[in-house]
């Protein structure tokens, strides 16, 4: 993998061999809600705080996330197959970068 970014099908396959699903926590912050990789304060989405309903919709549109209460779950293979993203890797590179950053953060904590 090039840094924290998946650029090829081989890198996506390698990532998906180690990661199947991810749990995101939906947390209220000043100005709205954000999604974070479980156990960290890492935000996987390139957005600012937004209303909870808008965040849930954004997660569903970007990754096919299923939101329940204050969590969302993403099947990473589904995120890879999202047709509304340019390229053949779907939303996987974006969320994988956040997962890898959070793993780095947890490893150094």
Total DSSP E strands: 4
Proportion of beta-strand residues: 15-25%
Tell me the Rg in angstroms.
Answer: 13 Å
Helicity range = 40-55%
Structural class: alpha+beta
| Main sheet properties | 4 strands, antiparallel
Q: What series of H and E elements makes up the topology?
A: HEEHEEHH
The strands making up the biggest β-sheet line up spatially as: 2-1-4-3
What low-confidence regions span 5 or more consecutive residues with pLDDT below 50?
A: none
**N→C terminal distance:** 23 Å
Q: What would the average pLDDT be, to the nearest integer?
A: 88
* Number of continuous helical runs: 4
What does this structure look like?
With 109 residues, this protein is α+β, with helices and mostly antiparallel strands. The chain has 4 helices and 4 strands; from the N terminus they run αββαββαα. Strand 1 and strand 2 form a beta hairpin. It is globular.
Quick tags:
single chain, 109 residues, alpha+beta, 4-stranded antiparallel beta sheet
How do you describe this structure in short?
With 109 residues, the protein is of the alpha+beta class. It contains four helices and four strands. The radius of gyration is 13 Å and the shape is globular.
Question: Helices, strands, pairings?
Answer:
Elements: H1 9-18, E1 21-29, E2 32-37, H2 52-63, E3 66-68, E4 71-75, H3 76-80, H4 92-108
Antiparallel strand pairs: 1-2, 1-4, 3-4
